[in-house]
Specification:
Strand content: 35-45%
Largest sheet: 6 strands, mixed
Shape: flat
Radius of gyration: 26 Å
Structural class: alpha/beta
Number of helices: 3
Order of helices and strands: EEEEEEEHEEEHHEEEEEEEEEEEE
Amino acid sequence: MLVKIVKRTFSGAEYCPEQKVLKLGGEGSTGVETLEFELPEEWAGMAVTVHVQQLDGTLPQPVLLGEDRCLEVDRMFTSSEKGLWMLRAMDGNGYCAMTRPARYECYETFTADGDTEITPSQYEAFVAQVLGAANTASQKAKDAQSAADRAEGAAGEAQKAKVAAADSAQQAKGEAESALTAALSQSNCVVDGGNKKYKYFEIIVNNVEDLEVRNVIFWKGANMVLEGCKNIWFVNCIWEGINPNGVNKIWTCGIRLRGRMENGESIWCENIWIEGCIFQNVWYNPYVNNGRPQDVSDAAILP
C-alpha cells in the first residue's frame, strides 16, 4: 500500500498522509500488507521512524524505516482493532518533524480452535487444496480452448459477444460513476479520479468534512452543491461543458456553496480550497432567477 506524506502550508507547515484511515486487514494478522511510504523531498537521507498508539494507549517500540522506506504490517498494528500512527524524521542536527497522527483500523476476528499459528497438517491440507484447484483450472483451460476452436468462424456468435462486451463496458462505466458519486458524500477520505471524465447531472454534497478531491473531470453536468461542508479540497480538477441538460429551471455553475439546517440553525460552508482547477465552457441559462439569470448561471463558483 502506497502511503504518500504531503506537506501542506495553508496556515503553517503540516505533514500528513493522503489517506485519512489505513485499513490493515484482520485483527491479529501479520504480513498481509506492506506500507510503502513516499516521503517529502526534504526528508531525504533522514532517519524516519514509525510510531503506533493502540486503542488502549499501548505504545509499541518504534520501528526505523530502511532505505526502501517500506514496513510490513504486523501485530505492532493489528494486536489492536484500531489506533493512531505517525512518522518522525530526524537528521541528527536538531531537525525533528512529525506527521499529523492518523487512524488505522483492523476488522474484528476470532481465534479458530485455539490456534494462533497454522499447524503443519493445516498447511499440508492447504497445499493439497491449491494443487487440486490448479489441476481443475488446467482442465478448464483445455476445455475453454476446445470451445474456442469449435466457435471459430461463428460470425453471428462473435457479434453477440461484441454487443455483450459493449454493454458490460457501459455498465462498468456507470458503476464507476456511481462509486465516485458515493465517495463524494464520505467524510475523511481522498477521492482520486485518475483524470477521467465523470458524467453527472447534479451533485449534492451535504454535511461532509475533511474530503480531498483530486484529478476529476466533472463533465457536462449542471452544478455541484456543497451544503454546510467543512475542510474540502479540490486539487487539479476540471469542470467542463457545464449545461442545464435540457432542464430550463436549473442553475448552471461549477460549484455552489449553500448552508444546511441543523437544530433550527443555519450551518454554512467553511474552508473550501480550490487549487490548480479549471472551469471552462460553463453555459448561460436565460430561463432562471426571474430575469436575472446572470446571477445564478455561467459562473465557476456561486457563494
